[in-house]
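Thread: cytidine-5'-monophosphate complex, take 2
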Amino acid sequence: MGRDVIIACDFDSAEKTFAFLDKFTGRKPFVKIGMELYYAEGPSIVREIKKRGHKIFLDLKLHDIPNTVKKSMAVLSRLDVDMTNLHAAGTIRMMEGALEGLTRPDGTRPLLIAVTQLTSTDQESMEKDLLIEKPIADVVMHYAHNAKLAGLDGVVCSPLEAGKVHDTCGEKFLTVTPGVRFADGDIGDQKRVMTPAEAKKIGSDYIVVGRPITAAEDPVAAYERCVREFVD
Ligand code: C5P
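Output below.
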């Protein structure tokens, strides 16, 4: 899979999701299904979107003991998603277990990506709440390196970190980056943002775009603009 735009389908029902996806009559976008939609609709939403011909990033961010994550990933592998994820904070052993569980009997598996530190965690909350007293940038790179050691395919990170992740973990290690906004758009609650063109320049492999597409007056035109700026 090459560089692509992933639309974050942050809806709370299948009805709203399909009303949105029905607009895309041409190219079928790669979509992200997060906890909100998955917990609302269950695995059937994944099967239905897959049946419509979309690639799927199942963003459930698993974090539990290695055995539980391994067995849960084995169940998710049957859903035929293209990409899924977990928290690198669960340790290298948990990530190795996840990879084992996710690998199907025929040796194929979805891409597995790690979340490093959530972008909602800042230096202060990391030190006070988690008692991690290193610079947050070092923590992010250390977690990315752990994900690479465990055999994962990449990390979710800010587009601002994508270049450094590639320097540390190699060009083939994937960077999946949210926090993307059009140069003339609203940034909403995102703090550190980049345009699709800037994300391309810095080496992001996938951008995850939500509201700039889902809340646009013409979502298909907004998606196509993202593709033009980031992929073409
Ligand atoms: O609407 P917006 O473009 O901000 O959506 C970005 C998507 O990426 C949301 O689904 C959000 O949960 C997700 N995300 C993020 N920042 C992270 C990890 C995930 O914005 N660090």
